[in-house]
User: Which sequence fits this backbone?
């Protein structure tokens, strides 16, 4: 039989659990390879390079961090919930890969002097984090959300030297991630490929 004070205790327990879940979901976590960034990411890029902004608008995922690298093994940064970071890149062809429980990839053709956007999204996985990458193009349904994402997310800056040293210590894992990234990209069908492709015209 339930006592007169059992219901308030149960309600308090449920409320405490809800607060704990909310705190976990909104914790952006940390990375030893990321530092504070500028709050003005959309400044004009240099005329001889392109800027790619990787944004993870969702706060869900707790402390989950996923390393992003390119097809040549360059450290791009660690993506954390509710954050974004810009990376300067030479014009031309590139491959962006998420290295976590799963592998996702975006191929890009970048033009100098333009800024491009790649969204990282998805819930945490069981064990290591699970995340997907999505190209934000002029035709994307979420193109109009970019400014809002950047206004509410926390800016970060990759420490490329430290991040690259980390990748050098994980050479076999990096090689495997690059191979998986190329394989995954080749497996996207005609319906999925546009979500994983940035064209030179998709910058602004």
Assistant:
């Amino acid at each position: 039989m339930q006592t007169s004070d059992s219901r308030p205790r149960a309600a308090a327990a449920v409320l405490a659990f809800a607060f704990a879940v909310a705190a976990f979901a909104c914790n952006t976590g940390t990375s030893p390879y990321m530092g504070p960034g500028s709050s003005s990411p959309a400044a004009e890029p240099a005329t001889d390079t392109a800027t790619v902004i990787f944004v993870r608008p969702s706060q869900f995922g707790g402390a989950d961090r996923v390393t992003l690298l390119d097809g040549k093994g360059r450290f791009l940064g660690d993506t954390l919930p509710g954050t974004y970071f810009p990376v300067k890149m030479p014009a031309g062809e590139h491959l962006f890969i998420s290295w976590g429980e799963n592998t996702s990839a975006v191929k890009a053709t970048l033009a100098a002097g333009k800024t491009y956007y790649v969204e990282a999204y998805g819930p945490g996985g069981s064990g290591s984090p699970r995340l997907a990458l999505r190209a934000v193009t002029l035709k994307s349904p979420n193109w109009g959300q970019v400014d809002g994402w950047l206004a509410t997310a926390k800016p970060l800056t990759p420490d490329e030297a430290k991040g690259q040293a980390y990748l050098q210590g994980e050479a076999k894992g990096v090689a495997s991630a690059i191979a998986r990234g190329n394989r995954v990209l080749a497996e996207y069908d005609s319906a999925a490929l546009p979500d994983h492709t940035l064209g030179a015209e998709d910058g602004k």
